[in-house]
Amino acid sequence: MSFRRRAVTIAAAIAVAAAVPVSLLAMAGTAGAANPLQLATVTPGETATAGTPFSSGQVVTVNVPANSILSPVAGQNIVVVECAAPGGVDPSVPSACDPNSVSGDSLTPNADGSLSYSNYQLYSLPNAKAFGESPTGTPVCNLANQCVLYIGTNYGDFTQPHVFTQAFVINPTANNTGANPGDGTPEVPLALGLPLLATGIVGGSVLYNRRRRSSDQAA
Is residue 205 part of a domain? Predict the structure, then answer.
């Protein structure tokens, strides 16, 4: 193999190596940039392990920055509700939200549309223990199915003012204890993928060198 062809081969391998972690990170990220209504953020209300899912029963804080969507309804009662968001895509129909998860506290946005609520409890869905729901019911929020929180005036009518949080996942916890609290991030095995990728590149290099020595000896 000529020096030029070897250079092209090595460059291609480097390109593949660079593309893999980018792809995995894209899978791990939320869809906030693609969903303009995802203005709000939901963060752990306690010390949590970064890079791990929320835990069913975990108490979180919901923060809504100043915005023009909720500012017109400042002072009016709004609710927080958990909704299924497969693939991180905001729900488009009220049936994607679980009425049993409606916040019990009275919440009102500020004049600029902002809001901070530090007492919302997340649950994996459907949830038999907390809500008496059937295991085969909908919506579904767990490790395999992403969720968002709806914050608005009427979760039964999506034409009314509302915003969503970023998408997240929830680890079902026995008795909804909120054990091992995380930050809602899907677990992506980058630590495993990168060593495997490196092994493949190194293995390819060794194989190439062996073939080159055999070719030289045959010549």
Answer: no
